[in-house]
Amino acid sequence: MKNQNVIYGIRAIIEAVEAEQPINKVYLQKGLQGELFQQLEGILRKNKVSTSYVPHQKLDKLSSGNHQGAVATISSIAFQDFEPVIESILEIEEKPIFLLLDQVTDVRNFGAIIRTAECTGVHAIVVPKSGSAPLNDIAIKTSAGAAFNIPITKVDHLKDAVYYLQSSGIQIVAASEKAKNNLYDIDFTIPTAIIMGSEEKGINPSTLKIVDHEIKLPILGQIESLNVSVACGAILYEAVRQRLN
């Protein structure tokens, strides 16, 4: 936390949220009351900002000033707007490839995925506003700086991104352990968006219902699944293999 940009104070955080600053998370003091504090809570809920309630000792460690029971951490990299990013890519790329992450909450997995995505030529990464890992210093460090080289966008709901991409002629391929087809059955040489879910929850079932293809990785050992960043790498490099050929 010490390496992250931090803002503190209720009014300062309200202003930051309303100004759409790249806030990773807001830490609020447990049991705190008051009209302004409740106003902040309402704004955080409305804007779907990740929030945790913690003891005041935690807040004291995060900030050096009068935090008033509220501290926010801000990423050094801002998430970009989804539609302008996608539109700009579609204007210049004939066969773009996108990566959508559903409920991937581990920051190190997030950083590793960003690194692999950048190495495999992914044009943009899409995550939902809630339920995703923050783009904090740990994620950026794990990405080995790749987070600075690839657009990372946020959407209210991942299904909105799926519908938008489908309407733009992009096939949607979801990685699921229950899929009948494996990744080698899919043509990745056409415009494609790949969805990866978390190891715990996978991809939201309602999202799976609207994808074009579901794929799985062949597992030959006794362990039933791979780490999500490893699985993502295997799928992306199959796409690279096909596109190089």
Overall description:
- It is a single chain.
- The chain has 245 residues and is an alpha/beta fold.
- It has 2 domains: 5-74, 2-Layer Sandwich (60s Ribosomal Protein L30, Chain: A); 80-244, SPOUT methyltransferase, trefoil knot domain (Alpha/beta knot).
- Helix content is 36%, strand content 22%.
- It contains 9 helices and 12 strands.
- The strands form 2 sheets. An 8-stranded parallel beta sheet has the order 5-8-7-6-11-9-12-10, with helices on one face. Strands 1-4-2-3 form a 4-stranded mixed beta sheet.
- Helix 1 (10-18) runs parallel beside helix 2 (35-46) and helix 5 packs parallel to helix 9 (228-244).
- The longest helix has 17 residues, at 228-244.
- The model has no long low-confidence stretch (mean pLDDT 91).
Short key terms for the protein model shown above:
245 residues; alpha/beta; 60s Ribosomal Protein L30, Chain: A; Alpha/beta knot; 2 domains; eight-stranded parallel sheet; four-stranded mixed sheet; 9 helices; 12 strands; 36% helix
